[in-house]
């Protein structure tokens, strides 16, 4: 199994136009502060972002772009278990070695500092593996889009 912590890629095609696809998604999704479970999010121009729960911010998330196609509309993007948390952990994983090198150059940071940096990097690897294993959680949002716009989907779980 490949390591894919940022979820899985998907592509949806529909015979509907771009404006009709956007309006159907807006009609079917929940409002941001609706207490019931279900897809909610926003569409900014051609960018779409959906998540599944008001309470659970670590839940599934989907980001994508809407494209005009010769015969309708196409949505292409990534969907996974916790994309915003994964992006944050990867950013922290990039910053930790930079901080460690800067501390080493300045003669600061003892052995315990470098042990903590190493432990954080190991924890980052485990978190990325867990995110890769849970990427199927984002499939519900892709199915929601498929239902809302009535298109056919291509992704790795099909």
Topology at a glance:
Layout: E1 8-14, H1 18-28, E2 40-44, E3 47-51, E4 61-69, E5 72-80, H2 83-105, H3 111-133, H4 139-149, E6 152-155
Helix pairs in contact: 2-3
Walk me through this protein's architecture.
- With 158 residues, the protein is α+β, with helices and mostly antiparallel strands.
- Helix content is 43%, strand content 25%.
- The chain contains four helices and six strands, in the order βαββββαααβ.
- Strand 2 (40-44) and strand 3 form a beta hairpin.
- Helix 2 (83-105) packs antiparallel against helix 3 (111-133).
- The two termini are 16 Å apart.
- 23% of the residues are buried.
Summarize the structure.
The chain is an alpha+beta fold and 158 residues long. It has four helices and six strands.
Query: Biggest sheet: strands side by side, in what order?
Result: 2-3-4-5-1-6
Q: How big a fraction of the residues is strand?
A: 15-25%
For the sheet with most strands, the description reads: 6 strands, antiparallel
User: What is the CATH level 1 assignment of the largest domain?
Assistant: Alpha Beta
The computed structural class is alpha+beta
The residue fraction in helices comes out at: 40-55%
Unreliably modeled segments:
none
Number of domains: 2
Whole-number mean pLDDT: 82
Number of strands: 6
């Amino acid at each position: 199994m490949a390591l894919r912590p940022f979820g899985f890629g998907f592509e949806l095609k529909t015979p509907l136009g771009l404006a009709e696809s956007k309006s159907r998604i807006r009609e079917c999704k929940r409002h941001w502060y609706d207490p019931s479970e279900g897809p909610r999010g926003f569409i900014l121009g051609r960018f779409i972002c959906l998540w599944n729960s008001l309470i659970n911010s670590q839940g599934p998330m989907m980001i994508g772009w809407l494209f005009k196609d010769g015969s309708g509309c196409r949505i292409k993007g990534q969907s996974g278990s916790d994309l915003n948390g994964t992006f944050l952990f990867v950013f922290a994983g990039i910053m930790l070695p930079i901080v460690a090198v800067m501390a080493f150059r300045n003669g600061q940071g003892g052995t315990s500092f470098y042990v903590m940096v190493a432990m954080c990097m190991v924890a980052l690897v485990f978190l990325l593996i867990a995110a890769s294993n849970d990427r199927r959680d984002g499939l519900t949002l892709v199915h929601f889009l498929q239902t809302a716009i009535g298109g056919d989907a291509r992704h790795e779980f099909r």
